[in-house]
Every structure is written in structure tokens, then in C-alpha cells.
Prior knowledge:
The chain has one domain (about 1-205). The chain is mainly alpha-helical. The chain has helices at about 1-15, 20-30, 35-55, 60-65, 65-90, 110-120, 125-140, 145-170, 180-210. The chain is about 80% helix and about 0% strand. The chain has nine helices and no strands.
Amino acid sequence: MKPLLNGLLTGLFLQLALGPVFFYILGITIDSNYINALSAILAVTLADYIFIVLSLLGLGTFLQKEKMKTLFGMVSSIVLILFGLMILYTTSSFNGSTGPAGSMAWTPLNSFTTCFILTISSPLTIVFWGSIFSAKAIEKNYKRKELVIFGIGAGSSTFLFLSFIMLILSSIKSGIPGLIVQILNYCVGMVLIGYGITRTVKIISPRHNQS
């Protein structure tokens, strides 16, 4: 049970580094309801477990190649920017009619699908998980079976952390004015675009400096 608990605690600690997926699900929760947010969280959890399995199989070594890192880095950056623009467009199309400000027609299906695409479009996460597993194998002397159990615990932290945070948010959001909801949606869109641009700059900069 120690590898499972260690994996859970490690994963919960890593959740504190809030990324674009967190803000995307935040936008879904603000814009719709907890059921849609929970569907999105399940998509992220599934994608994380796929990454964990692939990293345990050693695929992270393949993705460490410079060309592959550049390719997948650009793909994930473009996806982030497109999703951010989509949120901004939806929010700006609000015409003052009844309903949530800038509300998007979220359903459990499109919440799951879009969040899965957003998460799976950044396969360099496999490299990240691979480095975590390597560190734990050395630090705790974990064997393959123990690393699998550790991965199960680490992956479950995504679902536990996000579902808890979004449950709290969904329970208090009814008291948030529509204008604030619209502003929050704008912020979510801008954060996603910011992440995408930042990643693009980091990818391009080394090549620019060498030229």
C-alpha cells in the first residue's frame, strides 16, 4: 500500500502546479454545471493514465528526441491557442439575453471530448511521468510492479483534486453575478492563449538564438 499512497501524495503535490487543463475545466464549471465538469475531469484522468502506461512502457525515451519534442510541442501550443480563442469567441458573442453570460452549450459529451483532446495533445507529459518514475525507482528502489501501483495512485490524484475543487466552485457559483462569470470566461480564454504562446516562444527561441 505504500507505493499507492506515495503515488497519491506525489500526484496531489504536482496538482498544485496549475496548468491550462485546470483553467479549462474551471471555465466549464463556471459556464455550466458540475456534471459537465466531472465529465471533463474523467477525460483528463483517462488521458493521464494513458500517459502513465506509455511512460512505463518506455515511450518517453522516444519523445525525448529533439524533433519529436518540437513537433508535439507545437501541436499542443496550437491546440491551446485554438481552445482559448474558442472560449473568447463564445464569451464575446453574448448579447445580453437570458442565460449565463457568454454561455457555451456544454454537454457531458463535448466536455469530455474537448478536454480529452486538450490533454492528449501534449504527449510530452509522458516524458514528465517517465522522469518521475525514474526518480522514484532510484529513491524508493521501486520495481516494475511497485511503479505500476505508484502510477495508479498518482493518476487518481488528478480526479480527486479536480473533482473536489470543481465541486466547491459549482456549489458557490450561483451567487456569482453574470458579468463576473463573463469576465472569468475571458480570463480562462486568455490564460489558455498565454500558455500556448509561451510554449511556442520556448520552442522557437533556441533555434532563433542559434541562427
